[in-house]
Write a structure and sequence with these properties.
337 residues; 18% strand
Length: 337
């Protein structure tokens, strides 16, 4: 349920309403927008008298919300959420490009790639220290050492770092990571979601391979219900009957999520396709469709990469793509008005 307050509402009446709701076991999420203040009521609202609340002098309207996600729901929070990350942000009209290797292989490698992608316009460095792999015999990442290498690259370039958390036991190692990524395989690891919800760092949740929009948003709800509202959604392709590409990129999710949620949406065309030559057109499509950012894999020697070389761009290819993406983004913003 949401309660929309009148402009210039009486503060004492508002406090009285909030106290009454809390006494009935209702949690309240307050969203202050340009035009209205909205109270999002979370809990068992079935026994609340809508007519009684609507009759209050300070209340303009009361609406029931059918969707099971409350904090992530745009009805609770009409204004787009902007996630601040060090000297940059995700959302708020800018295009965030997160680029870097699928997996961190050495300090020299990740620092060199970080310098290259920053020069091309990337504003965050992505790189895997812990790697979930289908085969137990594949490279699993450098672990804690990989995080230290990412931090060294940040020290050299100033780029905030984005890396994947796979297990609760790893969380202490992420104290100095800027954005914690929850991978597709862990999208419904609810204990992990609650744990990252109890800390303040931004959390990027990748869509599960067969997840619906509602299931994806409910994963965001787990994080937000635990206290952390800094959530980014990442579309990385879903599993369909088509086997030519690694996954099927669902660009329709961008306008759909714009309707359903206030959270920023980024797109990972690298994992979606598994083929480097498809990254360019799908990244352009994501920007044209309104994505807030992109997650792109870049490797200085894809042929010898320890992880996902076939989907990685070389720095010079990324440079050409980034220039097109930034220009297209400006064009889209102009057309939107």
């Amino acid at each position: 349920m949401i309660v929309i307050l009148k402009n210039n509402h009486n503060r004492e009446q508002l406090e009285s309403l909030i106290n009454w709701l809390q006494e009935k076991g209702i949690s309240i999420h307050t969203s202050i927008g340009d035009a209205h203040t909205i109270l999002g009521l979370v809990g068992d609202t079935s026994k609340l008298d809508i007519d009684l609340i609507a009759a209050l002098d300070i209340v303009e309207d009361v609406r029931r919300v059918q969707e099971p996600y409350k904090n992530a729901n745009r009805k609770f929070h009409p204004e787009d959420t902007v996630i601040r990350v060090r000297n940059t942000q995700v959302g708020g009209g800018n295009l965030t490009i997160m680029a870097g290797p699928c997996s961190v292989e050495s300090e020299e490698q990740v620092v060199a790639i970080a310098k290259a992608v920053k020069a091309s316009g990337a504003t965050m460095l992505r790189g895997g220290a812990f790697k979930p792999r289908t085969s137990p015999y594949s490279f699993q990442g450098l672990g804690a050492r990989g995080i230290e290498y990412l931090k060294a690259a940040r020290e050299e370039t100033g780029l905030p770092i984005v890396t994947e958390l796979m297990d609760l036991s790893q969380l202490p190692l992420f104290d100095d990571v800027d954005v914690i990524q929850i991978g597709a395989r862990n999208m419904q690891n609810f204990d992990l979601l609650k744990a990252v919800g109890h800390q303040p760092k931004p959390v990027m949740i990748k869509r599960g391979m067969s997840a619906t929009y509602e299931e994806w948003l409910m994963s965001a709800e787990y994080v937000m219900a635990s206290g952390n509202e800094n959530v980014i959604l990442c579309e990385r392709g879903i599993r369909t009957f088509e086997s030519y590409t690694r996954n099927t990129l669902d660009l329709a999710c961008i306008p759909v999520l714009r309707q359903l949620t206030h959270l920023p949406v980024v797109v990972d065309p690298s994992h979606a396709t598994g083929k480097y030559w498809l990254v360019d057109p799908l990244a352009m499509g994501a920007v044209a469709t309104g994505a807030d950012g992109l997650l792109i894999e870049v490797h200085n020697d894809p042929a010898h990469a320890l992880c996902d070389g076939p989907q990685s761009l070389k720095p010079e290819a990324f440079d050409a793509l980034a220039k097109k993406l930034l220009k297209l983004h400006e064009t889209v913003r102009t057309l939107e008005g």
